[in-house]
């Protein structure tokens, strides 16, 4: 089984700003992000059941090494990996209880 999870860096920062910038409107957040002039990563993380993973850059369709990810993408990866581990442990407990 393969689980694909998409990471769009601009959306990530938009959510961070919305959660932490209580005084900012959505329009202000958009304006700040537009003004940054950044190139935003658009990645697909492919998580395999055996624990391996592939990261694909959706702009180039090339694989991206984990070591070249931005801080935001690394945080996203870590959060996704933790979710998958928790789900696997939960399923194991359910199976053992049956």
Largest sheet: 4 strands, antiparallel
Query: How confident is the prediction overall: mean pLDDT?
Result: 91
Q: Indicate the proportion of strand residues.
A: 15-25%
Order of helices and strands: EHHEEEH
Q: Determine the number of helices (DSSP H or I, runs of at least 4 residues).
A: 3
Enumerate the strands of the largest sheet in spatial order, edge to edge or round the barrel: 1-2-3-4
Number of domains: 1
| Straight-line distance between termini | 23 Å
Radius of gyration: 17 Å
- Binned, the helix content reads 40-55%
Number of strands: 4
What does this structure look like?
The chain has 98 residues and is α+β, with helices and mostly antiparallel strands. The chain has one domain. The chain has helices spanning 9-20, 26-35, 71-97, and strands at 2-8, 42-48, 53-57, 62-63. It has a 4-stranded antiparallel sheet. The longest helix has 27 residues, at 71-97.
Features of the shown structure:
98 residues, four-stranded antiparallel sheet, 3 helices, 50% helix, flat
Strand-helix topology:
Elements (H helix, E strand, L loop, with lengths): L1 E7 H12 L5 H10 L6 E7 L4 E5 L4 E2 L7 H27 L1
Antiparallel strand pairs: 1-2, 2-3, 3-4
Helix pairs in contact: 1-2
């Amino acid at each position: 089984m393969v689980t694909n999870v998409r990471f769009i860096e601009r959306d990530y920062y938009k959510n961070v700003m919305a959660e932490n910038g209580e005084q900012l409107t959505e329009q202000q957040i958009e304006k700040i992000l537009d003004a940054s002039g950044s190139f935003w990563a658009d990645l697909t993380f492919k998580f395999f059941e055996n624990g391996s993973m592939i990261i694909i850059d959706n702009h180039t369709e090339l694989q991206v090494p984990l070591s070249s990810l931005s801080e935001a993408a690394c945080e996203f990866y870590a959060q996704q990996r933790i979710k998958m581990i928790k789900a696997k442990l939960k399923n194991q407990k359910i199976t053992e209880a049956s």
